[in-house]
Write a structure and sequence with these properties.
Helix content: 25-40%
Keywords: ATP-binding, Hydrolase, Nucleotide-binding, Plasmid, Transport
EC number: 3.6.3.-
Protein name: Branched-chain amino acid ABC transporter, ATP-binding component
Order of helices and strands: EEEHEEHEHHHHEHEHEEHH
Pfam families: ABC_tran (PF00005), BCA_ABC_TP_C (PF12399)
CATH architecture of one domain: 3-Layer(aba) Sandwich
Number of strands: 10
Number of helices: 10
Strand content: 15-25%
Radius of gyration: 20 Å
Distance between the termini: 28 Å
GO molecular function: ATP binding; ATP hydrolysis activity
C-alpha cells in the first residue's frame, strides 16, 4: 500500500499525542438507514447503513465500482435511494433536491472537475455563495437600492479568506480553465467551502495529483475539519492519506458495507485486506500506521 506521507500539522486545531478527539460525545450529523440504489438490474448499493458524527473526518473506500460515489450522491441528493432513508441533522432529507440540501448545510466537490472554465477563480468561488444571498424576485429592487453593495463586500471578504486559506492568492484573477489540474482541484474545494457547509463531501480530492500536491491537499482537509469545524466525508484511493488523517473509515465492496471503524481496525480486517488490498497473507505486516494526532471522534 502506498500513499503520500502526511507530516504532522500543528495548526491551532491540531491534537497533540494523548489529547482527546476534537469532539467528545458527538451527535450524529448524518445517518443512512438501509439504503438501496438500483439502476435497472444493477444494484449499486445494497442495504447500506451508517452514521457520521459531527466534527468527524469520515472516509469511504473500496475498489472501483464499489459504490462510493453512488453513496456520496445519495448524501448530496443527486441520487434518491430506491429504498431506505437518509437523515441530516435528524431530518429526513431523502426526497430533497441537491439545492435544498445545500441550503441546509451540505456541500461537495466532484470527482470530475465542475468549474466554470471561462470565469475567474474569484468568480467561481463567489458562485458558491449564491444560496446565501438575501434577495429574491420580490425584494430584489429594494435590495439593490439598500443593502446590495454591503452584502457583496461581506461575501467578498469571506471569499478572500478562503483564497488565503488555500493559498491561491496568485491566481485569484486568473481564468479557471487555464490553471493546472492541482490548482483547479483547489479552486473547486474553495467553492465548496464558500457554501459554508456543516457537512462537506470530497469525491477523490487528490486524484491526479503529484506527491507534493497531495500533501498540501491533505493538510487543507485536516485544517478544514479542525479549524473550520466542518464534518468531512471523503472518498479517496490513496490509502496512505486515508489511514493518516481519517477518524473512521467505511469500506464498500460491490455496493455492500463490509467494514467500518477506526483506520487501524479497518486495515487489520481480513475482509478488507482480501477485497480491497488483494492480500491473502493475514500475517503480513500492515504497511501504514495511524499517527496519534488523529483520534476517533467519540
Amino acid at each position: 500500500m502506498s500513499g503520500a506521507p502526511v507530516a504532522p500539522h500543528p495548526g491551532p486545531g491540531q491534537n497533540s499525542p494523548g489529547q482527546k478527539s476534537p469532539t467528545t460525545q458527538a451527535e450524529t450529523i448524518f445517518e443512512a438507514r438501509g439504503v438501496n440504489l438500483r439502476f435497472g438490474g444493477v444494484h449499486a448499493l445494497t442495504d447500506v447503513s451508517f452514521g457520521i458524527r459531527k466534527g468527524e473526518l469520515f472516509s469511504i473506500i473500496g475498489p472501483n465500482g464499489a459504490g462510493k460515489t453512488s453513496m456520496v450522491n445519495c448524501i448530496s441528493g443527486r441520487y434518491r435511494p430506491t429504498d431506505g432513508k437518509v437523515y441530516f441533522k435528524g431530518r429526513d432529507v431523502t426526497g430533497m433536491t441537491p439545492n435544498h440540501r445545500a441550503s441546509l448545510g451540505i456541500g461537495r466537490t466532484f470527482q470530475n472537475l465542475a468549474l466554470f472554465g471561462h470565469m475567474t477563480v474569484l468568480d467561481n468561488i463567489m458562485v458558491g455563495r449564491h444560496h446565501l444571498l438575501k434577495n429574491n424576485f420580490l425584494t430584489g429592487p429594494l435590495y439593490w437600492l439598500t443593502g446590495a453593495r454591503k452584502e457583496e463586500l461581506a461575501h467578498r471578504r469571506e471569499v478572500e479568506e478562503i483564497i488565503d486559506f488555500l493559498e491561491i492568492q496568485h491566481v485569484r484573477k486568473a481564468t479557471a480553465g487555464t490553471l493546472s489540474y492541482g490548482l483547479r482541484k483547489r479552486v473547486e474545494l474553495a467553492r465548496a467551502i464558500a457554501l459554508k457547509p456543516d457537512l462537506i463531501l470530497l469525491d477523490e480530492p487528490m486524484a491526479g495529483m503529484n506527491l507534493e500536491e497531495k500533501e498540501d491537499m491533505a493538510r487543507y482537509i485536516v485544517d478544514l475539519n479542525e479549524e473550520f469545524g466542518m464534518t468531512v466525508v471523503m472518498i479517496e484511493h490513496d490509502m496512505g492519506v486515508v489511514m493518516d488523517i481519517s477518524h473512521r473509515v467505511m469500506v464498500l465492496e460491490f455496493g455492500k458495507k463490509i467494514a467500518e471503524g477506526r483506520p487501524e481496525e479497518v486495515l487489520a480486517d481480513p475482509r478488507v485486506r482480501r477485497a480491497y488490498l488483494g492480500e491473502d497473507d493475514e500475517e503480513e505486516e500492515p504497511v501504514a500506521a495511524v499517527p496519534p494526532a488523529r483520534k476517533e471522534v467519540a
